[in-house]
Amino acid sequence: MQKPSSSLPNFVVVFDGECLLCNRFVQYLLANKNGKHLFFATNQALKPSLPLTLQNTVQQTILVYQNGIWKQKSNAILAIAKELKGWHLILLIGYVLPRFLRDFLYDLVAKNRKKWFGTSQTCYIPSSEQTMRFLNTQDSTF
Question: What is the pLDDT of residues 92-114, one digit of tens each?
Fold first, then answer.
């Protein structure tokens, strides 16, 4: 976890815009009634603006910016589950596992995600309401 200064919203999910699994996950988050306060950005759009220590890992992982702190890998997924509440809270049992084990499992999926799930050949077009929840490099400073 890192704590840089920023003008980002309180909860931002940074994802791989070319990964089909990642895109479907973001579409699920956009449709979730408990996720209306989540904002999104592709790593392709934000990579040049990220702190140097995160630029090297952004292609292999999901990042979550929550209240001034950057979270990666399994910690990012668990932070999202906590925000969604409801049945997603069962995922918090993952905290029972040591982080190195959770991240090993995360890395296994992340390494193979494009092979297993493919890449997105078309861009997802969010609704006008959803568009307000997507950031680009002009929206954010780190």
Answer: 888 999 999 999 999 999 888 88
Distance, in Å, from the CA atom of 55 to the CA atom of 8, rounded to the nearest integer, reads: 17
Tokens of 9: 């919203």
Record the pTM. 0.82
Amino acid at 124: Y
Q: What are phi and psi of 14, to 5 degrees?
A: -105, 125
Let me know: does 5 contact 49? Beta carbons within 8 Å.
Answer: no
Would you call 113 exposed, middle or buried from its count of C-beta atoms within 10 A (0-12, 13-18, 19+)? middle
Tell me the HSE value of 22 on the side-chain side, using a 13 A CA sphere.
30
Q: Tokens 């193979």 identify what position?
A: 112
**Residue length of the chain:** 142
